[in-house]
Amino acid sequence: MALHHERNRRGYDPKDPQCEGRLLLRYDYQQQPYIKCEHYSKHNIKDHYLNMLVSDGSYDVAYLEALFGDHEDKISEIEEAAIGLGYGPLVECTTVCNISSQKSLCPFDHRNDEGVLMQLEMMTIKCACHVKVYVPFPEYRAACPKVLAVAKGVHPHSIPLPTKTPPAIKHEILDLLPRFQEDLPDLTPRRFLRSPIVKLYLAVKFPRILNPTMSDLHISLANRSHLKAYINQVRKSVYPHGTEWRGNWPLTMYEVS
């Protein structure tokens, strides 16, 4: 298992200490399920994992209850039923990533040879198809604003999902972030996704989708590292001197006055 995580890091040595706490399935006062790190506390320790979106319809709560309760018979029953619907950890994996992707593990959980549920290492698929892209020289782009892509051969795999966020959508996110105002200094991707601002934005953007997510806006936004980069970009522009006392000096003076 240690070697598995070492390969996933791809040589990256994280600066921040990594939490080794257990994830727990709990219920709030309204009997709505949520998942949290055992070290999380709403009173004094908020930096650990908390997911309050478990009950929004995007999770199979019965499956989570079986997993967290270690009910093997129920787990097998649900996973076997999922095979007939074409999903779950027992079906053949169809995930395809671009060769330039930094991912070393499949983003979806599968059962390994020992039956352990985990993210398995991805394999390189040999593809004999050749693609050439012809782009006009800068001085000719006004007369010919087109790009020609020529593919020779047949790909033995499906099309990889895009990992780069289109500029237009990126600008929408950057325009949305300043609305957080005083919450921007402590904003994280998790808090961003749970915020009423984002939920309202997505509801207006996708009125026909029940509980829309950022993935509906673009699949690349399922990667929280993208959101973190956008948050840091806006935070740095709003607080060029940082978010400590010195960086907040103008805001502090305004509140005092």
SSE run: HEEEHHEEEEHHHHHH
**Which strand order does the major sheet show?**
1-2-3
> What is the percentage of strand-forming residues?
5-15%
- Enumerate how many helices there are, as a single number: 9
Report low-confidence residues grouped into runs of 5 or more.
none
Distance between the termini: 57 Å
Major sheet size, sense and barrel closure: 3 strands, antiparallel
Please give a structural write-up.
- The protein has 257 residues and is an alpha+beta fold.
- Among the domains are: 2-89, no CATH class; 167-256, no CATH class.
- 32% of the residues lie in helices and 10% in strands.
- It has nine helices and seven strands; from the N terminus they run αβββααββββαααααα.
- It has helices spanning 2-9, 61-69, 72-83, 167-176, 189-194, 196-205, 214-217, 224-238, 249-256; strands at 23-27, 33-37, 50-51, 110-111, 117-118, 130-134, 148-152.
- A three-stranded antiparallel beta sheet has the order 1-2-3, with helices on one face.
- β4 and β5 (117-118) form a beta hairpin.
- The mean pLDDT is 84.
